[in-house]
Design a protein that fits this description.
Layout lengths: L2 H11 L6 H11 L2 H8 L3 H17 L1 E5 L7 H4 L7 E6 L8 E5 L6 H16 L3 E4 L5 H10 L7 E4 L13 H10 L1 E4 L9 H14 L2 E4 L7 H11 L3 E4 L10 H9 L3 E2 L10 H17 L1 H4 L8 H8 L3 H13 L3 E4 L2 E4 L1
Parallel strand pairs: 3-4, 3-7, 4-5, 5-6, 7-8, 8-9
Antiparallel strand pairs: 1-2, 2-6, 10-11
Length: 342
Amino acid sequence: MNTEDLFNRLLILRTPGIGPSKYNDLIQKFGGVAAAAETLQSNVAIRDSVMREMDTAQRLGIYYICDDMEQYPAALREIKNHPPVLSVRGNVDVLSRPTVGIVGTRHATAAGIRIASELGNGFAAHGVAVVSGMAMGTDTAAHRGALRAAGDAQTIAVLAGGVDNIWPVENESLYWEIVARGAVVSEMPVGAAPLAQHFVIRNRWIAGIANKLILGEADLKSGSMTTARFAIESGREIWAIPSHPLDSRAAGPNSLIKTGAAKLCCGITDFFSTEKNSSKLQKNEKNLTSENSVLDALGIIPVSESVLSEIVKKSVSEIKAELVVLELRGLVRKVDGGYVRA
């Protein structure tokens, strides 16, 4: 695609009042992108804005992928009124991989974080790119789990703002890891700030890019449930991770399972045969726990240093020293209330 063609496509899309549906109508009516752009008679300000955007994208190493290009996500192309142009920062090849969406609440429990991370890692290890929205909580756990797998092209973050606009800012380090080993994508102009109304659209494209969707902890009225509804409308395969019914974060996934809209997800073995890996992992864990009583005392429920001291009969200073080593090895994580297994 040459620069003039891209300019015309963006000129149409950046004109106020024109979205994917109107864009397609104009091209069909006038017989092509150039003719459609010419009929708009866009003012100088819009044309200058598009030129500045393209210059910024080139300077930052951002690519534009149009829906008639091979690199455009195949599953997303099937969605009615999909984005005609995506901006991409990172490894474009990841968009051609099989994909799974993993979404859930920003306020996930330690157990919710752990299973999202394990699923992300398991799918990435099997060559499936993990798609999520880079939000705190479940999204972050899924992305980071995928990034723990060897190799590149492991995960895709779909943003509500421009691909160069890091949101939330707390995930800046994650953003750069994804750019280095996956891809960040958006339909919004480069430089655009994420507005509230853009997140619903972002959720639709997560569901659109993903071949299947897994829903973690989520309230009934959450954005993650909106993503699940989009996925259902698009005919995607839906899975949901059950949780305790007294927790409001269980309402979303439990309701989908109860109504038959989603299959019950208990872990990565629902999707891949990992008997050998599981056996090996259990053996390794057994060796680790037999060698380290502190690690053996931890699970998914946070345990404080003082309680660990009582359990393993060691001083608090000894516990702290061992926790530092275990944390550096990636075996434990510090959370509110103490430590859990990573």
